[in-house]
Amino acid sequence: MPHTLQKSIEQQRARLIDLLGKALKQYAIIVQPLLQDRSLLDEQLRLIFKQIDHCKYLYVLDTQGVQLSSTVNRYGLELADYQRDRSTRPYLQHIADDRIDFNLSAAYISRNKKRPSLTAIQTIRDQQGQRLGFLGVDYDLRELPHSEMIYEEPSKWRQIKGDPAIRQGLFAQERSESLMDKQIDHVLSVHEALVVDQGVHHFQIHFSASRSTIWHIDDPYVYRILTMEELADTNICLAYPRRPYFERAIVPSQQIKQILWQFKALRFADEVIYLRTASLNIVNGKVGLNFSCDGTHYLSYDEFLSKGLAFWLGGATHDATTTNTATLPLDTTQLDQLIDSLATQGCMAVNQLLTRLEQHEIPTALQAHTKAERDYIYQELKSVMQVYETGTCGL
């Protein structure tokens, strides 16, 4: 079972309840005869405080949530807290339910120190079971024991809405050509080289702002900002050591180019709804997309590649003229490289690919490409295959 964020929280709370529950029940029995004598109660709480691991504050409340004792901390007694009304604090939301003996609050921000905290509340009862008050123990989250296992990021598609003001004015805007747009093919090739050959495992491309942020496997805790001036200079690749493709990557290296090409397609496919920022992490395989409507998507790289432009832009209706992806200039140099790569797979594989295209299917290897690019690939491969009229290709 994936170790999700919610699962991690539940497991940590279960550990704390097991750690605290039995001990506080015994301490509640000890303080019960002392509720009417503040001095004896304070002294007993000081002794108990020394026995409770990780405790920040300790106190006793009456049935209405008003403090009967001072507050005990590691420095001594907070006398001024006597008769403090805690009834409205988040850890006493269960105060009306007499059936609850022990309650571990949800995490909250403390009133005084403004720190993430937890409070355990143990009901104090007499021998007849009547509720007399509460024993309260506050904890600073930073000081509690934690599981060493970190939760896993969910693999399902996540969509997050952005600024409503941007969405309301969406159709009054139009994409402005950025410096990066003018050199997009060069910039994407640089990113491919940095990821495949030079150890970058995560990047975020800001198309509209003409900059990129990268994280390198040799120094993963630090990000580096690359301006358009730096990205335009191919010598930037000399600034990073050559590294084999990262062994922890789950994104196949040959699909980095396809992902980058799909980023380009989403950037230019429409003048109103267009890609502003895109990111890729090759270790968890996540693609991040932020559009001009300020909507953000996080999804797996393979799901991203399986979606065509019609999926992202098919629902857009606006008055501005929509750019037809078929009219975008083709990067024939990169397409020819792909065609050469496909041709090396053999005649049978090429014929199967051509057959699927003729049946209006989109092979996996071409799902990141526009219809115009697929048409170009089809025609070129068809021309290549026509050369072979005999031999193994004719079988």
Number of domains: 3
Total strand segments: 14
- Could you tell me the mean pLDDT? 83
Gross morphology is elongated
How does this model look, in words?
By secondary structure, the protein is an alpha+beta fold. The chain has 3 domains: 5-143, 2-Layer Sandwich (Beta-Lactamase); 158-324, no CATH class; 332-394. The chain is 33% helix and 20% strand. The chain has 12 helices and 14 strands. Mean pLDDT is 83; it is low at 315-328 and 389-395. It comes from Thiothrix eikelboomii.
Q: How do the strands and helices of this protein lay out in sequence?
A:
Blueprint: H1 5-31, H2 38-49, E1 57-61, E2 71-73, E3 76-78, E4 102-104, E5 108-109, E6 116-125, E7 131-140, E8 158-160, H3 164-168, H4 179-182, H5 184-196, E9 200-206, E10 211-216, E11 219-227, H6 228-231, H7 256-268, E12 275-281, E13 286-291, E14 296-300, H8 301-306, H9 309-313, H10 332-343, H11 347-358, H12 371-387
Helix pairs in contact: 5-7, 10-12, 11-12
Q: Gist?
A:
33% of the residues lie in helices and 20% in strands. It is α+β, with helices and mostly antiparallel strands and 395 residues long.
Any key phrases for this structure?
single chain, 395 residues, alpha+beta, Beta-Lactamase, 3 domains, 7-stranded antiparallel sheet, 12 helices, 14 strands, 33% helix, disordered C terminus
